[in-house]
């Protein structure tokens, strides 16, 4: 295990800084926001907090620039590397988005094999607190061994967490009724009724899967831990945040959007395609639709082709990000790239999404409704077209379209399914009509844009001094500092 060079915190009245370790899951959607959180905590109290990202070597490379910028700003942020477990992946492949779908199980196997590594590391370094990602449920027990607080970091919003918790309680009924049931009413949700077809629910609610077998461990560890940190802001999910604090967490801290402010947006998550920002600068204000479906979008070749033809048929400028796995171009219809060259750009691999969303030429976001994308769209004040694919994304979509009302579904014309291979293909004609109609405006679109702008204002206010997320960030530091002081006093008395 190797620690990278960092900085020591400034003098703090003779006290050494609070040493907090952060353990992210092996996926960019977890790694990036947890790194943002670590940097934000270190920046909030430069003399009081030393943040250490505990990561595998290839994942360390993805966040190295962000950490370096924090260090250059005088903040105590470090990297501590540990070996990625041998699960049969190529050297340097350590992230969910970097593997083919048929190899995803290997990444989850690496999670299981990380338990003894985490224990050895934490017993050796003995930090003052640990913020560990959801899958690493065993960290609660390890932290208890060394007498320090463990907080669970949730990269998923509160609305989806509550929905999944409440649906899990009736999981046997859902399984009994099967996917033939027209919809499931999510029990125990404040506000309006939320109904979701079983085919759009995460698979662990429908059958025994890796997560369903781990769910009880995850929930028990969360409830036994010190508290929960969530990348959200209260004004986006207010009634659900209140309910979550009431029923599901001893302490809950809502500290997002951790991606704000945007001064380092280009550098998050590793190298991206910077040319797209120059390309955007050649387009009129609010004219471009940005299409990105995350690092885990597994479209069929047929669906990718329909999407390509749909973007072409919209006659609107577009910036489209495709997975590196799909970058060979075999999906592109003959002559397509030449036909759209004057108004379309395809980014293969990774794009600087925050910088793209903040660009004045971008007018809408076609998204899979991964939580980071939902939160980043709201923070940027962009209305969204929703195309959920997997995991809890269909639940996030309900927040966007039915509760927060800053987006609309791309398509209602066929069967959707969390098993992408079982979903109907969305035809090019429907995609073209939806994108064109959304970008051309109208009263409904203007209402969504106004609502998105309101959420952006509230997101910025939340992370500004005395805002709700600013207060929760400082509260978690205060609570951890007090817990550490209490531990020290107890050790001195014994």
Automatic annotation (TrEMBL):
It comes from Triticum aestivum. Its EC number is 2.4.1.-. One of its GO terms (molecular function) is UDP-glycosyltransferase activity. Belongs to the UDP-glycosyltransferase family. This is Glycosyltransferase. PROSITE patterns: UDPGT. Pfam families: UDPGT. InterPro entries: UDP_glucos_trans, UDP_glycos_trans_CS. Gene3D superfamilies: Glycogen Phosphorylase B. Keywords: Glycosyltransferase, Transferase.
């Amino acid at each position: 295990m190797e620690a990278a060079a960092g900085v020591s915190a400034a003098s703090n009245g003779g006290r050494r800084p609070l040493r907090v370790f952060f353990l992210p899951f092996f996926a960019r959607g977890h790694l990036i926001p947890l790194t943002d959180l670590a940097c934000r905590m270190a920046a909030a109290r430069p003399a009081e907090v030393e943040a250490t990202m505990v990561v595998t070597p290839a994942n360390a490379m993805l966040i190295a620039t962000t950490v370096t910028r924090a260090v250059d700003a005088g903040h105590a942020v470090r990297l501590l590397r540990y070996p990625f477990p041998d699960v049969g992946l190529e050297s340097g492949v350590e992230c969910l988005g970097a593997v083919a779908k048929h190899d995803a199980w290997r990444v989850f196997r690496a999670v299981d094999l990380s338990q003894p590594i985490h224990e050895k590391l934490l017993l050796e370094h003995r930090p003052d607190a640990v913020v560990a990602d959801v899958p690493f449920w065993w960290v609660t027990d390890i932290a208890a061994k060394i007498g320090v607080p463990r907080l669970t970091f949730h990269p998923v919003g509160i609305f989806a967490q509550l929905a999944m918790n409440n649906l899990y309680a009736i999981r046997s009924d859902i399984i009994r009724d099967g996917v033939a049931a027209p919809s499931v009413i999510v029990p125990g949700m404040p506000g309006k009724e939320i109904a979701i077809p079983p085919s759009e629910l995460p698979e662990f609610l429908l059958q025994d899967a890796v997560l369903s077998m781990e769910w009880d461990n995850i929930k028990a560890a969360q409830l036994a831990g010190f508290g929960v940190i969530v990348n959200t802001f209260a004004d986006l999910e207010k009634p659900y945040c209140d309910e979550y604090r009431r029923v599901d967490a001893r302490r809950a801290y809502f500290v997002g959007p951790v991606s704000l402010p945007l001064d380092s947006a280009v550098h998050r998550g590793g190298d991206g395609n910077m040319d797209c920002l120059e390309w955007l600068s050649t387009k009129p204000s609010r004219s471009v639709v940005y299409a990105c479906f995350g690092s885990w979008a597994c479209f069929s070749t047929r669906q990718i082709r329909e999407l390509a033809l749909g973007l072409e048929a919209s006659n609107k400028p577009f910036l489209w990000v495709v997975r590196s796995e799909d970058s060979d171009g075999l999906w592109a219809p003959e002559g397509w790239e030449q036909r759209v060259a004057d108004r379309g750009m395809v980014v293969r691999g990774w794009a600087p999404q925050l910088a793209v969303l903040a660009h004045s030429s971008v007018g809408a976001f076609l998204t899979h409704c991964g939580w980071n994308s939902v939160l980043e769209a709201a923070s940027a004040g962009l209305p969204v077209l929703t195309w959920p694919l997997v995991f809890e994304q269909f639940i996030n979509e309900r927040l966007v379209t039915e509760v927060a009302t800053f987006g609309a579904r791309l398509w209602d014309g066929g069967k959707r399914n969390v098993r992408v291979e079982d979903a109907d293909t969305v035809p090019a004609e429907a995609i073209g009509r939806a994108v064109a109609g959304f970008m051309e405006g109208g009263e409904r679109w203007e209402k969504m844009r106004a609502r998105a702008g309101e959420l952006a204002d509230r997101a910025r206010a939340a992370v500004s001094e005395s805002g709700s997320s600013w207060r929760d960030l400082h509260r978690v530091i205060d609570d951890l500092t007090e817990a550490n002081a209490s531990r020290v006093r107890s050790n001195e008395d014994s």
